[in-house]
């Protein structure tokens, strides 16, 4: 795998003024002890996610028909329609609904975000990056279709994401200023303000002792930034005010980092068969992880604090509309794969 020369990163300041991002706030709570099994208010996040995922999956299938050149479109469909939890699209729709928008208006955005995510997985798995052979329980895209086709499929998915977002917003009557703002937000989440920057620093940090600040930089960009963009764009498309949009940004940053902390813990506590991807790969390649820097118990306690912070951000919204996002944060916290 190609190596990038290490360099010093100036990390972002912690997201919360009380430094919840880098401290445990004096609590010894375990994320498993904080809440066993979720809420008791009758809301089912599983049903909600299944419903939204079904909407997204139908639109994704329609948006990418099998056509010439077939090898390219087969490769794109292979990764895009491979299933998964669809957390990012669900987050986009839930954020849109939170500020008074509807699912139909958010669906093109939800699909665009998932196209970006699929692209990132294809590229992340390439031999020049993480060189993984397994993704979602199947051979990775480059193993199934070859490196060149996989690379181009990722590029094509990225282009399609912005086309689909722009056309979909126009078709559903989303005002042009909102659509343009959503496009700019999503684009920033892909490039030097997000995925690409995080990947570069991640590669540079392999086999190097890094600080919590550098680790936060990596995962705020590589993982959390796209979840943040999904929520922010959802609020934008739904017509949210600036305060609502920024509230969604803070919530999603915490949820995005929570997603990565849990992912790091699962990487060292679950098997490849349970995860559907190669377990223990970060440890084998010398990458920094939260369990490596904090220990497993410390990482779990950190995840508990991130969950508390995310739920606190929802308190500024109408409580009758926050259930999906509150339960989505808990779903991410307690997931087992």
Characterise this structure.
Belongs to the FPP/GGPP synthase family. By secondary structure, this protein is mostly helical. The protein has a single domain, classed as Orthogonal Bundle (Farnesyl Diphosphate Synthase), CATH 1.10.600. Helix content is 66%, strand content 1%. Strands 1-2 form a two-stranded antiparallel ribbon. Helix 8 runs antiparallel to helix 10 and helix 11 packs parallel to helix 16. The longest helix is centred in the last third of the chain and has 28 residues. It is globular.
Topology, pairings included?
Elements: H1 31-34, H2 45-63, H3 70-80, H4 87-98, H5 103-125, E1 134-135, E2 138-139, H6 141-145, H7 147-171, H8 176-190, H9 195-204, H10 212-237, H11 242-269, H12 272-275, H13 281-284, H14 290-294, H15 296-313, H16 323-334
Antiparallel strand pairs: 1-2
In short:
66% of the residues lie in helices and 1% in strands.
Task: Give me some keywords for this one.
two-stranded antiparallel sheet; 16 helices; 2 strands; 1% strand
The first-to-last residue Cα distance is 26 Å
Give the CATH superfamily. Answer: Farnesyl Diphosphate Synthase
Overall shape: it is globular
Strand content: under 5%
From the alpha-carbon coordinates, what is the Rg to the nearest angstrom? 19 Å
CATH architecture: Orthogonal Bundle
- Average the pLDDT over all residues and give the rounded result: 86
Question: What name is given to the CATH topology?
Answer: Farnesyl Diphosphate Synthase
Helix and strand string, N-terminal first?
HHHHHEEHHHHHHHHHHH
Oligomeric status of the shown chains? Answer: single chain
Return the CATH class.
Answer: Mainly Alpha
Number of strand segments: 2
Helix content: 55-70%
Number of domains: 1
Largest sheet: 2 strands, antiparallel
Number of helices in the DSSP assignment: 16
Which strands sit side by side, in order, in the main sheet?
Answer: 1-2
Overall SS class: mainly alpha
Poorly predicted ranges:
1-39
